Amino acid sequence: xxxxxxxxxxxxxxxxxxxxxxxxxxxxxxxxxxxxxxxxxxxxxxxxxxxxxxxxxxxxxxxxxxxxxxxxxxxxxxxxxxxxxxxxxxxxxxxxxxxxxxxxxxxxxxxxxxxxxxxxxxxxxxxxxxxxxxxxxx
Amino acid sequence: xxxxxxxxxxxxxxxxxxxxxxxxxxxxxxxxxxxxxxxxxxxxxxxxxxxxxxxxxxxxxxxxxxxxxxxxxxxxxxxxxxxxxxxxxxxxxxxxxxxxxxxxxxxxxxxxxxxxxxxxxxxxxxx
Lengths: 138, 127
Description:
heterodimer, A: mainly alpha, 6 helices, globular, B: mainly alpha, about 80% helix
């Protein structure tokens, strides 16, 4: 019942889910940066820190985006195979470092980019192997 | 940073582990309902309702809340781009858990992919 072909509509949904997924992590990082004054050393200070983070609007924006990603992702998976969806959706592995560089002022070395690309290749292979397994089941 | 790196990697492993436990509970709750994919809205709503009253689902939910809390602690100590790549170690945990607990079979392609993820995380951590 699953189509293998990625239509334009599904591609747009996949791009949206990539970008929203990246936004989730950007919001989470922002919520933490807004509370950078806390020095977490033990469980008690961690609790104080988390309480402050959970009252940050960025965290709730992030959680709301998580829900949106979940709905879009469920729509995508009702239309195409997981093994097709995951490789396209994994571009957040590249988007997140880009957003980190542009909006958060983080530095990404060549070696780290190499590691990121290896992780991305691994994620794609793992998801392709689920297709292989579905074929075995059928 | 060097000494802190191990702590951060440990915390990322912990959040990945909580994520994996959540996934296993979720998978087990869904499997127990024996749901067939359908476009019938009423059947889908009934499925979601019976899923929501499964205690296993809420056990999983608790773990995902713990996972979020640890993740926020990680982000307070590490760069986002590093933490995000390193978090892909949940693929490794899920791979081993589905192999050990769910008795799913591993294909050579999946071993290769999991190996690449491990290598990638090592490179990302070294840089």
